[in-house]
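Chain A, query sequence.
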Amino acid sequence: MMMELNRISSHLVALATGGMELGALTAMEFGFRERELVLDIFEMVSGLRMNSAYIRPGGVSQDLPEDGVQMIRDTIPLLRRRLKDTADLLVGSSIWMGRTVGVGYLDLTGCMALGITGPVLRATGLPHDLRKSQPYCGYENYEFDVCTETTSDVYGRFLIRINEMEQSLRIVEQCLDRIKPGLVMIADKKIAWPSKLSIGSDGQGNSPEHIKEIMSESMEALIHHFKLVTEGFRVPAGQVYTAIESPKGELGCHIVSSGGTRPYRVHFRDPSFTNLQSVAAMCEGSMISDVIAAVASIDPVMGGVDR
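Chain A, predicted structure.
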């Protein structure tokens, strides 16, 4: 649920900033207006609006508040109604289409040669989505469609993001129907991070009840709690590569373990870094103004590129 809400938030930023860069300032206002609704949910669930560190090894940091499910249910219809504003404003608009149709063209062959993923790849007609082809986190149990277009241009990538937000809302609704309170962390205490948290005046931390329990009733639990957080848990020697379908494309992580509590090597495959190399191919023979539209349709994050 949190991952799909984050996908909506990311796509809203892409549409808002892309609209701003092409002169559609109302689209920017709509995008950031709707994003605030999602960030309100993040704040309600985790205490922070961005970079919440909510997902931990083995689960999540804490359960939803008592009124959390209802708040999210109430927000979904509002999001649906407001997301339509952006679509009504830009889909089919002669001015918007004049800046995006046929611009930043990159076909399937080009995407495959450059390793491009995400909405840029799906705009060529290939329904490649790791949530479907290599399901993780139980995605195989949810009903949703992989959105594609066949235009291979900026306009097609725009349409995909519009349609993917609706699919994300479908998944969030299914999550709300399946949520069971209390199941937030794996049962194995050898690898489960502290998850009985609460939000107090000094920020988020362990609940007073949990602190009282581990300090007064179990010295072993207190020592283990300290070592788990400060040292981590030992991982058998070996290596693994795992990828997820982030809003911008395939986000992969290659980790090599030497058998200790710290990885020997870690490398991330960030989709922004990989996708950005397609700009030269997209913009060959184009006007300089089209470069702005092409880069906006990729929706790169420079922090990911630097990483």
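The longest strand covers residues 238-246. The mean pLDDT is 91.
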